[in-house]
Amino acid sequence: MKRFIHYVSHSVAAMIGISVYILADTFFIASYSGSDGLAVLNLALPLYGMMNALGSMLGIGSATRYSIRKARGKDVNSFFLQALFWNAVFSIPFLIGGLFFPRQILQLLGADRELQDLGIPYVRTILPFAFFYMANYTTGAYVRNDNNPSNAMIGSVIASLFNIVFDYIFMFPMNMGMAGAALATGLSPIVGSAYCLLHYCSKKNTIPFGWQTPRFKHLCACCQLGLSNFVGEIANAVTITTFNMLILKISGNIGVASYGVVANVSAVCNAIFNGLAQGVQPLMSHSYGKKDNKALKKYLQYGIVTALLFSLTIVFTVNFKSDFFISLFNSENNAGLHKYAAEGIHLYFWAFFFVGINTLLVSYFSATNNPKPAFLTSLIRGTFAIVFFALVLSSIWQMTGVWLAFPCSEAFSLLVILYYYKKEQNEAKERA
């Protein structure tokens, strides 16, 4: 239990730190540019979702494969550097898009001409930092899997503090506006990864830095175990993009700005469950690699109980303090924004009764080298279910239907995930 608490507490703190990057941007941008700035940031959030998705697939997938092979005494000499190499390769489209096509990207995301003009400096500044944003997942995941979750946590917290301080400095005293917010956010993962270097340079480090010609087969093997993370993260981008398009038609830019409030508070709550899943992953992977089924079952049970406690805390805190969260991002005291956001919070956040268990069980499939159900359940949960419920319910109840789509999607996904979990348990009994 002590080891579980150590890993999970540090991982949750680290993931909350990462989510604060965007939260700080939201607060300062809302103060600087009002509801239009908030709308721009919410339209740009899918870009973060894509970077997070690729970074987590490469970093966490590679680190999970590394942990399992290391526990079985197999060669892991080149895993870390290959993960960083593929981070660099996958970041190239973001670099090109940010430098040469920011307007087209914003247009594709649904921004009108006015929002495009406001958002171009932000997109042009943030996307060239894609490599560092993605590599931050790799450095943190390997440190956690090398028995040092404290280092990953502290690095994340330091990066978040840097982002908050320099968001203010760049936007206000230096008057850089939206570009300043993006610059502070882009530099933050560099700070976090730099702190992780303290572990890699220490005597505690057991991660080898061997180099081998990059192999596509190796990439696929690692990505297999990171696919659920990829789909889980890309689901945020899919959800935000789908909701933005629907809300633009129903209630315009004010509606999108209100969804920005809901999405940013939701991002922190999701980070808590992602932290839980990533914290217990090294423990489950190591137990699985050692074929210690008793320990594996114990860590999963601890995770489920913790997820339920987090769920209760989140749902009741957010519902009873909804006005506080809305006021953080409503500097203009816009009545329309408050109305939409209040309704959204009171409906949208019931989903978090299911999110924790869903996230944990998908991570369990990946941690135990069972990528197929991890991928399928993540795909159903993150794309098909949320899009289906959003389209159907919004056509019936307009904005109310949009807000209800997320809890309905997560409840349905829980049934699918439990089916695959029960099937996996039955197959394990038959093999025994």
TrEMBL record:
It holds the Pfam family MatE. The keyword Transport applies. Keywords: Antibiotic resistance, Cell membrane, Membrane, Transmembrane, Transmembrane helix, Transport. GO terms for cellular component: plasma membrane. It is a multi-pass membrane protein. One of its GO terms (molecular function) is antiporter activity. One of its GO terms (biological process) is response to antibiotic. It is found in: Cell membrane. The keyword Nuclease does not apply. The chain crosses the membrane at residues 12-32, 38-58, 79-101, 121-139, 151-171, 177-198, 299-320, 347-367, 379-397, 403-421. PANTHER family: MULTIDRUG EXPORT PROTEIN MEPA, SPORULATION PROTEIN YKVU. Belongs to the multi antimicrobial extrusion (MATE) (TC 2.A.66.1) family. MepA subfamily. This is Multidrug export protein MepA. It comes from Oribacterium parvum ACB1.
